[in-house]
UniProtKB/TrEMBL annotation:
It comes from marine metagenome. GO terms for molecular function: peptidyl-prolyl cis-trans isomerase activity. InterPro entries: PPIase_dom_sf, PPIase_PpiC, PrsA_foldase, Trigger_fact/SurA_dom_sf. Pfam families: Rotamase_2. Residues 107-214 form the PpiC domain. Gene3D superfamilies: 3.10.50.40, Porin chaperone SurA, peptide-binding domain. PANTHER family: PEPTIDYL-PROLYL CIS-TRANS ISOMERASE HP_0175-RELATED (PTHR47245:SF2), PEPTIDYLPROLYL ISOMERASE (PTHR47245). Transmembrane segments: none annotated. This is PpiC domain-containing protein.
Length: 261
């Protein structure tokens, strides 16, 4: 630990002989890593000593491997050069289309609401659902204690300790999937009920049923808003891409041989 902090102290101490931003913190043969470059690599964690050391070590290792690859002749390998060029072309195209779509797409709340109204049938639940909070605890005693806390009502410092310690998952379960994975018993409970503990090899499972929905019921707009937004964005994005390509065809001299038609 002492060497770690000594490294950071030396790394960012003032120097009377050279510019701080350009001072070298690591070197592999002729290639150098400066303070400024290291700061750019670490980003917001520039003051974290462990991150600085880890990032520097990774830079050294990557540079060593890169040099070895170059010395082996891979930099001149035609297949690698071709892959590089194709990747760069794809990156430019993706960036261009991203700029085109972002500047032209505007989706309002009304757009989302209208889509929901017109397509309600696509938001019908295909199966029974429960929305749960799932705890896995190490002992039955701990499970029963938490179950008592949950029954008394959520909140409070004691409950927050359990959340922080055991990091429960909040998720939606479908009856068909749940029954095949042996947790179908959850569907016998009601909304607001605490089910369990149930022991498995992983520990003691406790389930808080937050919501319960029947097959065939509609998913509310608040639940599918983001999904609808993504659908609309994709539709408009695809339309813009088609329009952009069409305009480029008109303004360009394009030839396609009959042999490939």
């Amino acid at each position: 630990m002492f060497l770690l902090y000594l490294f950071v102290f030396i790394l960012f101490s003032c120097s009377s002989s050279e510019n701080n931003a350009g001072s070298v913190v690591a070197r592999v043969n002729e290639k150098k890593l400066t303070k400024k470059q290291l700061a750019a690599l670490t980003g917001s964690r520039v003051n974290d000593s462990k991150t600085l050391l880890l990032t520097t070590n990774r830079w050294v290792e990557k540079t060593l491997l890169y040099n070895a690859a170059v010395e082996s002749g891979l930099k001149k390998d035609s297949e690698i050069i071709s892959k590089r060029d194709r990747f760069y072309e794809d990156l430019l195209v993706a960036s261009f289309l991203d700029i085109q779509t972002k500047n032209k797409i505007n989706i309002t709340k009304k757009d989302v609401s209208n889509y929901y109204t017109k397509n309600k049938k696509s938001f019908i639940r295909p199966d029974d659902e429960v929305f749960i909070k799932h705890f896995i605890l190490p002992s039955k005693k701990e499970s029963i204690k938490l179950k008592k806390i949950l029954r008394q009502g959520r909140g409070g410092a004691e409950f927050e300790k359990y959340v922080e310690k055991y990091n429960p998952q909040t998720k939606t379960l479908f009856r068909q999937t749940a029954e095949s994975s042996r947790v179908g018993f959850i569907f016998s409970g009601s909304a607001g009920e605490i089910v369990g503990p149930k022991k498995t090899g992983a520990g003691f499972h406790l389930f808080e049923i937050m919501q319960k929905h029947k097959k065939g019921s509609e998913r509310g707009l608040e639940l599918v808003y983001d999904e609808i937004y993504e659908r609309l964005y994709k539709q408009k994005s695809e339309a813009i891409v088609v329009s952009t390509i069409d305009s480029l065809y008109l303004s360009s001299d394009v030839f396609i041989s009959a042999e490939v038609r």
